[in-house]
Amino acid sequence: MLIARKSYLRALEMCDKILSLSPDDVEARVKLGIILAESGRIDESENVFKEALRLKPWSIEALRNLGALYGNSGNFDKAILVWEKILAIDPGNEKAKEAIERARQMKEGTGK
Fold it and tell me: b/e for 1-24, b at 16 or more Cβ within 10 A?
């Protein structure tokens, strides 16, 4: 809710508090990554998503957000690799299939 209202500072504080009590909370890490990305702190966001995946490599939410971060940054090859990991876990994931297709189209359009 705080993220939707763009109350990033308050949301960041809440995530930090949760993670101080439960450092292995993958859901809180993913939320923190989203907040950091929305705040323009892309490198920090990437690291947080990667840490979430270190804790829970099959986290579709962490993979989806890391893929989106790469795609939105124009790093389509990395985005595709991440979304392909989603399909390895969940072969019927239509959102991942669509994201891969969009990234391939964007890659062709930009040459990246």
Answer: ebeeeeebeebbebbeebbeeeee
Please state the pTM of the whole predicted model.
0.88
pLDDT in tens, 34-86: 999 998 999 999 999 999 999 999 999 999 999 999 999 999 999 999 999 99
91: tokens are: 């072969």
Instruction: Let me know: does 45 contact 68? Beta carbons within 8 Å.
Output: no
- The answer to whether residues 38 and 6 touch, using CB atoms and an 8 Å cutoff, is yes
